[in-house]
Each structure stands twice: as structure tokens, then as C-alpha cells.
Design brief:
By secondary structure, the chain is mainly beta. It contains one helix and seven strands, in the order E-E-E-E-E-E-H-E. It has one helix at about 75-85, and strands at about 1-10, 20-30, 40, 45, 50-55, 60-65, 90. A five-stranded mixed β-sheet has the order 5-6-1-2-7. A hairpin with a 2-residue loop joins strand 3 and strand 4 (about 45).
Length: about 90
């Protein structure tokens, strides 16, 4: 099994100048992840893998997936609540 930490940025607004939250999900995969792949687990869905880094010191993949950007009428706060309900965790920085 491969330890994986999926990371997704949630932006405060559509211009992506202010990051609102960093979300993460830790899971084990029975295979090596790949760019462009998407992973799901129950209600949780990763989104498209954009960047993939193997951390050799701690033996895990750090996986950056597509960002969440608010659209007109949908706030970052609402998107954050939905992401948490779907299984993402708030990465406290």
C-alpha cells in the first residue's frame, strides 16, 4: 500500500489571489498514483491529480489536485462546508 496525502486549495475568490483554506485527505492506495488520475472513496472525490511528489524520508506521496474556486453566488465558505461533508479535512497551517 502507498500512503498518500491529497492536497486541494480553496480560494477566497475567483481571481485566485487569496487562499482561503488548504484541504487534505490521507488515504492508502494499492497502486502508484499518476498525473491526471482521479480517486474516490465513499462520498470523497479527489479531483484531477496535477502534481505528484514522493517523500522518500517519510515514505508517502504528496498529491496536489485541482483547486476549488468560488463562482458567482457560491461563496468559499459554502464550498468549504461541502468539502468537509464530502470527507476533506482542514489542514491547519
Amino acid at each position: 500500500m502507498y500512503k498518500c496525502v491529497f492536497v486541494k486549495y480553496l480560494w477566497k475568490d475567483a481571481d485566485k489571489k487569496r487562499r482561503y483554506k488548504v484541504l487534505e485527505k490521507k488515504i492508502n492506495l494499492p497502486f502508484t498514483p499518476a498525473l491526471g488520475m482521479e480517486v474516490s472513496e465513499g462520498e470523497w472525490f479527489s479531483g484531477i491529480i496535477e502534481r505528484l511528489v514522493w517523500d522518500n524520508a517519510d515514505n508517502f506521496f504528496s498529491i496536489k489536485v485541482i483547486d476549488i474556486t468560488p463562482k458567482k453566488g457560491i461563496s468559499a465558505e459554502l464550498l468549504f462546508d461541502v468539502a468537509i461533508k464530502q470527507g476533506w479535512c482542514d489542514r491547519l497551517e
